[in-house]
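Note to self: keep these together.
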Amino acid sequence: MRLAERAGAVAFWLVAWQVASVAVNSALILAGPLDALAALVRLAQSPAFWEAAGFSCARIVGGALVGYLVALGLAAAAHARRIVRVLLAPALTAIKSTPVVCVVVLLLIWLGSANVSFAAVLLMVVPAVYFPALKGLDALDPKLAELFDAHRVRGMRRLLGLVWPGVLPYLTAASEATVGMSWKAGVAAELIGIPSGSVGERIYQAKLLLETGDLFAWTFAVVAASWACEKIVLRALAASGPVALRRAARGQRGRAAREMLAASPDTGSAPDAQDALCAARDLACGYDGRAVSRPVSFSLMPGERLCVLGPSGAGKTTLLKTVAGLAQPVSGALKVLPAAERNRPRAAVVFQDIRLIDQLDAVDNVLLFSAAGTTAAEARALLAELLPNEVLGRPVAQLSGGQRRRVELARALAAPGALVILDEPFGGLDARAHERACAVLTRHLGSRALVVATHDEKDAARLQARTLAVGP
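Structure:
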């Protein structure tokens, strides 16, 4: 219906244009759409037409592509460093506010007429893309960013799985105006510089010779090229989101394997405190230098499990975030092995609130954070222990809260890290699903240590875990 409405609107204005042309009764003053179409067909039969179109297209499209790359690079630098943002703001604001015509003369002096359209388009595109891209980077979901930080997902996987999907809506909105404006800016620059063999030169000649039909024909060609480029860019951007997410989940992962610690043989002897995966002594946790709970001391050996108990607001979540390396201790000592490194995760984490990539299915959500070498079949087999097979291929946005929580549990078991940290992981699960989740956790933990924050004291027995009470 929308297509029919658009076609009808276009037909209305073409008819109005033809009526106006007939009323004026002078092709020299106002050529009608039929005259312009006839001129376009005639021009298109000449090699010179296509040479001019290719000349201008190469420079306008090239300027736009380079402009996008420069803008995205500057936005990334400005997002990472405030000093870059501060220094770029006045310059790019000035470029954005200055009409292209005002700088074309300088561009002609510096670059010559052959490259003026390339430079003009680049200058128009950079600020038009930079500011929306920077806004998209600033607006990235902080909870998803914390999830990626907790699992030390860096580089291309972070770019494809977090950054690009977050920036894409802003980039798409900017492109709806920028791509079309690129052609306007490029042809306007050519009309001033008149580079030999360009579309701008042909339009200028049509004006000088009063060839009104040719003038409209070249305008048709520019409008068609602008429309085609805009549609191509917008469709490419729309397709890039799912492709990026799937590539992030299914691509090669240079991550440390989950089995970073081999299972220790059971000798029956008491463990050495120096072998503890996690050891805390008089550890007080909080924010901005203020503790939210009393100090605690504990240690965890490979394969050991700890249930952190306490009422809401007692500081369980803060303690778990501190152990995961997402918050700094207020006082006391905390040692976690292996020490946190940029690309080596300290722990696999399930947060108190659900954090999944909604566009991906359950299998890809697990693979996105899984250990190196994990296959889709292995991820599916792990999920099948917690969820019905028929839901595994659906986007997780379509799953219930309890099903989404079980996807997170499977993700934690598949992710690398000597520790598995779960914050209220059984919320939204009925009694049967709760028992099953505990059984799956127990079965798959191996030599990894487990820390679970829970309100249910029975979880300690279900998980064969020690308990640690926290509170103010």
